[in-house]
Amino acid sequence: MNKLNIDHGDTRKELAKYPDGYFNLIITSPPYADARKNHYDSISPDNFPDFILSFHDQFWRVLAEDGSFVLNIKDKVIDGVRNRYVWKTIMAFAEKGWKCVDDYLWIKPNAMPGYWPNRLRDEWEYCFHMTKNNKFAMYQDAVKKPMGEWAEKRLAKLNGKSAIRHNSENNSGFGRDLRKWIGKDWVLPGNTVCVPLIGKNMGHPAVFPVGLPDFFIKLFSKENDNILDPFAGSGSTGLSALRLNRNVTLIETKEEYIKVIKERLHEYIIQYSMFDSSGKETTMVSEPSLNKPYSVLKHVRRKAVNRKPSSRKQKAVDTKIKEKKRKTASS
After folding, report:
1. Are residues 255 and 231 in contact, defined by beta-carbon separation less than 8 angstroms?
2. What is the separation of C-alpha 8 from the centre of its chain, rounded to a whole number of angstroms?
């Protein structure tokens, strides 16, 4: 069973409770510069690098030596021109010793339409991957995708340069050999992640779509690893981590969003219970939060006892129980 910790307070202070190297992955999306002013304290683009760097010491301390830090953040347009506070922020992290391994792009296929006289609409955001060391944990097989229908035709009849290793024309040492792809059904994806935006805010102004942390949690952690979201918002990272059998810690400074997180994860735990090897129903949350006043454990268990799920949810649970028992019996 996996642990869920929900802490309310300043991340810099809350993380002091956790031991060195405790987390395998930090994944988060902090409030963007001068955004959501009615919901979070506004940080100007010029001050944003210093603001986010104020979390550096604790992030570095609690992250495992082979761990990863994924930061989702977006540029801001001021007077029709992009302010590059994002780039300045990442360079500031690099100066602190972080290895800026790669820039992933979150592609939003359902981005909000609109008209701007000097640019097109935003359909992507940065997801920066940083580590403490050059060698880090990465599980590429977990995010492989189907090769695609093109492969059958493209690889059916290889001739000319396609039938041998083709080295780069500029003698760079790079090359390709299409013969190695014959018979393969799965390949590694590129460094873009296509995940649609969520249609409703679920009690929070900027809900993180669960599919985004899904990708990075699969790529940079394994089951039962410890995941941290230090700007938890509506709790999407927690939902993703529990679904993928990871332990997760969520830290949020706003009390109203702590309530949103608890209610959202409570609904998930009620609807999608975990089962042990005998088919017996059990709970996802096995230990109380390290921050006892904001522990979700008793909250979840109390409501789980007093509240009956809807007939549709109950039917889904019953189906999972039967399926689990059937598989256990057949094995």
Report:
1. no
2. 20
Do the Cβ atoms of 65 and 133 come closer than 8 Å?
A: yes
Walk me through the domains of the chain, giving residue ranges and CATH numbers. 4-144+191-257 (3.40.50.150), 149-187 (no CATH)
**175, β-bridge pairs:** 167
- Classified as helix, coil or strand, 60 is helix
Tell me the H-state helices in 32-84. 48-53, 56-62
Residue 231 identity (one-letter amino acid): F
User: What is the chain's Cα-based Rg?
Assistant: 23
Q: Find the helix or strand (DSSP H, E) in which 320 lies.
A: helix 311-330
pTM of the predicted protein model: 0.74
Identify the helix (H) or strand (E) that includes residue 176. Answer: strand 175-176
228 three-state secondary structure: strand
Contacts of 98 (CB under 8 A, 6+ apart): 60, 69, 130, 131, 132
pLDDT in tens, the chain (331 residues): 689 999 999 999 999 999 999 999 999 999 867 654 544 457 888 899 999 999 999 999 999 999 999 999 988 888 888 889 999 999 999 999 999 999 999 999 888 888 888 988 889 999 999 999 999 999 999 999 887 666 666 665 665 555 555 555 565 555 565 665 566 678 889 999 999 986 555 544 456 789 999 999 999 999 999 999 999 988 999 999 999 999 999 999 999 899 999 988 887 776 655 443 344 434 344 333 333 323 333 333 344 434 444 556 566 666 766 676 666 666 5
